[in-house]
Amino acid sequence: MEVLNYRNLGLVNTREMFKQAMQEGYAVPAYNFNNMEQLQGIIMGCAESGSPVILQVSGSARKYADPTFLPHLVTGAVKMAEALGVHIPIALHLDHGNSFELAKSCIDSGFSSVMLDGSHHPFEENAALTRQVVEYAHEHDVTVEGELGVLAGVEDEVSHEVSHYTRPEEVEEFVEKTGVDSLAISIGTSHGAHKFKVKPGEEVPPLRFDILEEIERRVPGFPIVLHGASSVEPEYVKMINAFGGKMEDAVGIPEDQLRRAAGSAVCKINIDSDGRLAMTAVIRKVFAENPAEFDPRKYLGPARDELIKMVKYKNEHVLGSAGKA
Ligand SMILES: [Zn+2]
User: Catalytic residue at 95?
Assistant: First the structure.
């Protein structure tokens, strides 16, 4: 495969992004994508709201888009933002990398940031694997995200029945031993669109801000990452169900909890499910209202428009990253 350096693609690593986010009390959005319309929606939304952005792909999303094709797709997005006359920092990040080989392959093909998720391994094994990735990544000035604690829920490559909160007493040693640039923690967020089993009218369990505060005390100023942080917008779930879909009991993280997290050491908030829901809701509506439609532009176009709207809303009203580019 073609060897590419992220700087030549117009990308940046996450170091400066997180430094500024920490100082100014907001979180940088990390939006997942798999195809052109999603990528355009994310870039347009962030360009229009003046927000830095982390474009995020899992290993399987990279396979879906094709590892050779992907960096060129991203270059297109960078050039599109420039053509709009906007200069926003853009990072390309591997979400939930599960091996040194995958992380290395991403670094060698234009990624500016990678995650090594060894959270399902015992501490020492997780630390050793993360350290190995950090050594290679830092030779190329690529930043690395590690993870301690396990999130419940289902995402592309990750699936766990129950969550294990991060143990704050392990964080210092992990950060020191591995040299990671940021750390994903488990304080009650969850992957997927069905984050909690709650009965109608019941509140979702609040995030464990006590654990976050203890971590902040132990590693002051160190960038923290929240995965599984979609709000699972009820408006989209309702639309999906109204137009022939079937998404029961889909609930997410309330916005006020995310706003509070964004003001803390949390410098990166991952959003995947909400983008999927926004596009699916609109596509279902188009098909339900226009059963004869068969031009992909007529359903992917409105889906992209909805994603732009959603991204702007998140940046402006939830993460606080709007106008920070
Ligand atoms: Zn995740």
Answer: yes
